[in-house]
């Protein structure tokens, strides 16, 4: 088969994988569609619609402040939308780390007092234009003058109550921007659609604003006591009830986003279906069913400028699809040296760059890691998170320094070197809304091993030993031995099927993980909502 034919076939397989939906997700006949769904269906599109103006609201934005994939998404999507002619801007907290680094480059736009229950809090709005995108930062020393992005659960609720009210106060005159759409992301901005209706939408341009709510991770919902939230947000009982903000008697910011937004997106098609099941619904599957008519899945892209092996400044040698086989060997050898692993080109090296939390399948890995390390394999883990995983992994690495490296830190340049220098990339997640690391690894010619869930299922094409097609390896069940056997199998292909391996690298590197297609889908959604 020619290379072109093989690539085309890979595309077909990919499409098949993307359209396949889990069988468990069938909409019950009795589910009533929400009003917003009806609106979505009946709106007749005029022939020429002006490009919408959109304000993204997020707690993390790359490169200013990043904890996980959310920052990558908000750091990339608005830029691509702007390139397509949409006026997409971003608003986020002015965390201390941003203030320290960017204050000189920003301009103070406005200062005001924001109502937070019985108190009034100072809110400064700073702005900066970077790479064609206008960013706004909400300043308040008490809430954001801390080194950490997230501090502790109770205080975070208060911080993001303030943030959301400050955002809604800011739009319009304060920042000179009247967006058509507020694009909210995760629980930290989940109350915006509700607050907009409750306090702002009676008159003026606010009355025309529509809201889109993207669920990046359903697990984190922003839940606190009714007493505290009523106090902070001044919400009348028409919203503070079980069909509104309350979930099992407690205010739930994620639920509020689901109920009051005009459209909901999740970051992959499979995750959009999974979250409506009991297994993945995190207690909100019933609500999600109820509003299923306004939910869609749009897979994330990756920042193809930051993650580009051809120009990456952090890696020892750059490479493209043609030079990958050769130059990855140099990257691998340098990485082994840097991490004090045995410098041996024949031992497959598996990378893992992740928040160290149970979602990422660390219990599966811990269950089999001893047995796995009996075979010739090296594992390089980079991450921070749960002290339990940090401790146990560090201890294991001390016992096996030549085959296991564990770096408990957040280190972007090292992350790039692991993406480039590894042969395999481990992502045995229990659930994965989209996942960016598997796409980044494929762009670097590093072959992912994933569990078939969420975006991992939608973006990795399983290797087929008969046709030689595929971009990675996958297993379906939350079962440690499936991870073990899949990893051993991948190592076997690496060692014994050189041609198949070079095709795996090629297929992954030539797949399109850019934001282009997804940005078009968001534009389509915005136009439908307006
Ligand atoms: P999640 O959003 O659940 O954390 P994703 O795979 O969507 O997972 O995105 C994780 C992003 O964060 C990737 O860009 C990954 O490279 C980066 N990352 C995670 N942990 C670290 C770390 N310790 N050091 C550097 N980058 C990290």
Verbal overview:
- The structure is a single chain.
- Helix content is 40%, strand content 18%.
- With 530 residues, the protein is α/β, with parallel strands linked by helices.
- It starts with a helix and ends with a helix.
- The strands form 3 sheets. The chain has a 9-stranded mixed beta sheet with strand order 3-4-5-2-1-6-7-10-11, with helices on both faces. It has a 6-stranded parallel beta sheet with strand order 14-13-12-15-16-17, sandwiched between helices.
- α7 (192-200) crosses α9, α12 (324-338) crosses α15 and α13 packs across α18.
- α13 (362-374) links the parallel β12 and β13.
- It has helices at 3-19, 35-42, 69-83, 96-102, 141-144, 153-170, 192-200, 226-233, 253-260, 269-274, 285-290, 324-338, 362-374, 387-399, 412-421, 437-443, 454-459, 480-496, 498-510, 516-529, and strands at 53-57, 87-93, 107-116, 119-130, 133-139, 181-185, 210-215, 246-247, 250-251, 263-266, 295-297, 349-356, 378-385, 404-407, 424-427, 447-451, 473-475.
- It has 2 domains: 48-301 and 518-529, Glycogen Phosphorylase B (Rossmann fold, 3-Layer(aba) Sandwich), CATH 3.40.50; 324-512, Rossmann fold, CATH 3.40.50.2000.
- Residues 68-69, 72, 353-355, 382-384, 410-412, 415, 434-437 line the site of adenosine-5'-diphosphate (ADP).
